[in-house]
Amino acid sequence: MQFKPVDTSNFKMNLLRTLLLTPLLLLVPFTGGTLTVAQESPTVSETDSTTKGAPYVPTPHHVARKMLQLGNVTSNDVVYDLGSGDGRIVIMAAKEFGARGVGVEIDSALIQRARRKAREAGVADQVEFRQADLFEVDLRDATVVTLYLWPDMNNRLRPKLRRELSAGDRIVSHSFDIDEWPADTTVSMGKASVAADTKTLFRWTIPDSTSSE
Ligand SMILES: C[S@@+](CC[C@H](N)C(=O)[O-])C[C@H]1O[C@@H](n2cnc3c(N)ncnc32)[C@H](O)[C@@H]1O
Which whole number is the average pLDDT over 65-72? Predict the structure, then answer.
């Protein structure tokens, strides 16, 4: 009996297709059901942060800038980005707004990338990137907190934000709000006709402890 050589080319094509498409499909729910490809270096993190929380989808730079403006960031501020990805929000806060910043990220590869980018941007002495679970990090130093996380993560963070931040501190979230905590400002960016281009930003200000909120 003669063995026929197996043609593996189809299998290889399917494997390649699966490897290429799986990360994109993982991003679909995070972009509101619209398949939006991340703008720069799209990756789903190697340590699979999807099992821990939100996947890595970077905030476009112009949206990051708007978030920092909405948070009234100045050189007096310490900006914490919870789930900081490649560090772009913290790096921009330092470079363009003169603030100090801390990025908290669970994925070690992203931490390394953020530290490299901070050095390249010349702000390594103003920023710090901590590899940690964002629910475990002490936020008492922060004056502005930025978020681009799943809604349930925002909701779980709410008591911690209220406990550890002080009156007048700001929280700015990209895309997702916080249940039963009305934002004091909501901003829509982009073309309403192109759903994938529309970004909603929410800002909360920690009230005075004497306020009824
Ligand atoms: C949607 S990305 C946002 C990245 C960045 N903040 C931005 O706006 O460009 C969410 C990030 O949160 C990180 N992340 C998810 N769960 C986390 C957790 N429990 N602790 C720390 N980082 C987490 C992911 O690895 C990912 O980089």
Answer: 98
